[in-house]
Design brief:
The complex is a heterodimer. Chain A has helices at about 25-50, 50-70, 70-75, 80-100, 115-120, 125-135, 135-150, 155-160, 165-180. By secondary structure, chain A is an all-alpha fold. Chain B starts with 17 loop residues before the first helix and ends with a strand. The longest helix of chain B is centred in the last third of the chain and has 19 residues, at about 400-420. Classes of the chains: A mainly alpha, B alpha+beta.
């Protein structure tokens, strides 16, 4: 585990429905959801924070927050939306703490994915992943949520706490940057704007 | 693990070309699939317990938090810092933060597993007759705080009925001499040493584990000590002087008796083959300071490819590569023979866990086939089995005492994370040059070198480093190495 204790990001608390209704006891339903979604939640966090211990912390805190708000969800289908946003918020907090606590650390010594992990990706994927990792945080979030989590613009906007228009423009910039770095067929970066 | 979504369900309204989107999705998916977070039921249960504990903590619990309890054990304090077989003294409840956390998790897990356990006692390093998760009773000796491995079970019979069976651990194997220890139901510790010309054992009463315990004095077998993780320098200094050095966390052994890790594996002793050269082509060379020339392709077949490379710290990186899935871990030889590396293999027909173990030549594996494990190659054992169904059970809330301990634990973690410095790697057992090289990789300078007497430790070996393993080296400071004369 990481030596970083995660706390909820108070600046951007995940949303809960205004009209909370009494719900079933959290126990079995929550536990079942946890078992089903733990792996995918860690993966999403991993793509945002780079290192697995932090990702597991972020995922754990997301589920902890979900459990705290379980009775306010009203609708079980809201749970995934809550998790998405909680992971995005948790990842931002983790990265902010990392910048603060380890500001002195040489850039090449930051807790990036281990070399052994990257080696397993292969050249092509490693190059693409490195390009995604080099994006500004918000662009990276959009790319991960849109192209790995397969969220639509509305869901991405909700997870990130921004508008759909911002999602669209951020995605444009991100893909243009990836084009410039990776090259690729067809559309030029200029054509995206 | 696979991506949670159907890749064909890609957003269609993006303005960029689909080829780049596919490349990005593919790379992200591959990176995500490399996560080693386990879906093994026990580990998931522990995670779930932490989530419940965290949620309970956030809601304020039920009543004011109590101060951490202090357990006073019989006996007087003794100013003599020299280690001895055992010595009663005060034991503060929070012996180590990890021990406290372990008990908290254990308390929650106990209800996960049996649903009816009473709250856990105050956090101490004392054993519990019924540990709530494997290894809890050894939480002050991290190298032993693991599930019981087959090599541990070998020691159950020799130790006899005096000890709690589930607490037995093999604490070391030096050549053909094996050392086991187990805990008694009243908190004591017993040990057994067996090997050519060696058959001895002993016991120490409750509280002995609060400080170093001598398991073997060197008369019939190499010296071995159990050393608590938080043992002060004054207690370990005599061991260093005698050439007894850390072996795994919590166990110190006579340096001259420890076989170099590379020599313990036939496949690693053998000259590299063309296949091994191909393993080097997997781009592992140089990763995590893998020793050049040490990479070996242990086996390649329908189970996947298995590659191992040595680290200069006496650990190994062990890779299990299956198409679409990869598992890797860099651990001590003990961990790799005990826990191995596990990957989950999911396809249309199965949802399995595959575990591979890197096994030294001298480890007794005679009972492994009965456990469903099979040998794929020299030094390599394998098992694949379905992931068992997981049935969550209700979890109780934390007691005020546990909540308080959890808060303290979190505070400590935050302080550690905020500390200006970085943890020192383990360099004991290396030469001065090797240690300097390893420290340099962590951007930690060697600020002082002291040559000293260190028993039978070979000349030139690092027998001690200050700050020690995992201790924070303050920014701008360095490590003081002590070299055997």
């Amino acid at each position: 585990m990481s030596a970083v204790a995660n706390t909820q990001d108070d600046e951007h608390p995940p949303p809960v429905p205004a009209s909370a209704v009494p719900a079933e006891p959290a126990g079995p339903a929550f536990d079942e959801l946890f078992v089903q979604r733990w792996g995918a939640t860690v993966q999403l966090a991993l793509l945002l924070v780079d290192d697995e211990p932090s990702a597991e912390d972020v995922a754990q805190e997301a589920f902890t927050g979900l459990l705290r708000h379980w009775h306010q969800l009203g609708d079980l289908s809201r749970a995934q939306s809550y998790l998405n946003r909680a992971v995005v918020n948790g990842a931002r907090s983790a990265l902010r703490r990392r910048r603060t606590a380890r500001a002195w650390t040489p850039p090449h010594a930051t807790p990036d994915p281990s070399a052994e992990e990257l080696a397993l990706l292969g050249d092509e994927r490693r190059e693409v992943f490195a390009a995604v990792a080099a994006l500004p945080l918000r662009q990276r979030e959009v790319v991960v949520l849109r192209y790995w989590s397969q969220l639509d613009e509305a869901a991405t906007a909700e997870a990130m706490g921004i508008t759909r228009g911002t999602v669209k423009s951020t995605a444009h910039k991100a893909m243009a940057a990836l084009h410039r770095r990776l090259g690729g067929p067809s559309t030029s970066a200029g054509g995206l704007r | 693990m696979s991506s949670p979504h159907d890749p064909t369900d890609r957003p269609a309204d993006d303005p960029t070309d689909e080829a780049l989107q596919r490349r990005v999705a593919d790379a992200l998916g591959a990176r995500a699939a490399l996560t080693t977070t386990t879906l093994e039921p026990g580990a998931l249960g522990e995670r779930l317990a932490r989530v419940h504990a965290g949620a309970a903590d956030g809601t304020g619990g039920s009543g004011p938090a109590a101060a951490t309890a202090v357990v006073e054990l019989a006996g007087a304090e003794d100013d003599d810092a020299s280690p001895r077989r055992w010595r009663p003294r005060l034991v503060v409840a929070a012996v180590a933060s990890v021990a406290a956390a372990a008990v908290i998790v254990a308390a929650v897990l106990s209800t996960l597993h049996d649903g009816s356990s009473a709250p856990a006692p105050a956090a101490t390093a004392q054993p519990s007759p019924s540990p709530s998760y494997p290894g809890e009773e050894w939480s002050g000796f991290y190298g032993l705080a693991h599930a019981q491995w087959p090599s541990d079970l070998e020691g159950v019979a020799p130790l006899g009925d005096d000890v709690v069976e589930g607490s037995v651990r093999m604490i070391a194997q030096l050549g053909r001499v094996k050392y086991w220890a187990g805990l008694t139901s009243d908190g004591g510790v017993c040990w057994k040493v067996l090997g050519p010309g060696a058959d001895e054992g002993g016991c120490a009463p409750e509280a002995a584990l609060a400080e170093p315990v001598e398991i073997s004095d060197g008369s019939v077998a190499p010296r071995v000590w159990l050393v608590p993780a938080d043992a002060p320098d004054a207690e370990t200094e005599p061991l260093t002087a005698a050439g007894v050095v850390p072996y795994v966390h919590g166990v110190w052994v006579e340096a001259s008796a420890s076989t170099p890790p590379l020599d313990r594996y036939a496949q690693l002793r053998a000259a590299p083959t063309a296949a091994d050269e191909r393993a080097a082509g997997f781009e592992y060379a140089g990763i995590n300071a893998i020793v050049p020339g040490s990479l070996r392709l242990l086996h390649e077949g329908e189970e996947g490819a298995f590659v191992v490379g040595a680290l200069p710290l006496g650990e190994f990186c062990f890779f299990h590569l299956v198409p679409g899935v990869s598992g890797s871990t860099c651990q001590s030889p003990q961990q790799l023979a005990g826990e191995g590396t596990t990957v989950s293999i999911e396809d249309q027909e199965s949802n399995d866990l595959a575990t591979a173990w890197l096994v030294p030549d001298d480890l007794d594996t005679s009972g492994w086939p009965a456990l469903g494990r099979r040998q794929l190659a020299q030094n390599l054992w394998y098992e694949r089995k379905p992931i068992p169904a997981y049935t969550p059970e209700p979890v109780r809330s934390l007691t005020p005492e546990e909540e308080q301990a959890l808060r303290e634990q979190q505070d400590e973690l935050v302080q550690q994370a905020s500390a200006s410095g970085r943890p020192a790697p383990e360099v004991t057992g290396l030469s001065e040059a090797e240690a300097t090289w390893v420290l340099d990789r962590y951007h930690i300078p060697v600020t002082e070198v002291t040559v000293r007497d260190a028993g039978s430790a070979s000349s030139g070996m690092v027998v001690k480093a200050t700050p020690g393993t995992d201790q924070v080296v303050p920014e701008g400071a360095g490590v003081h190495l002590f070299i055997a004369r």
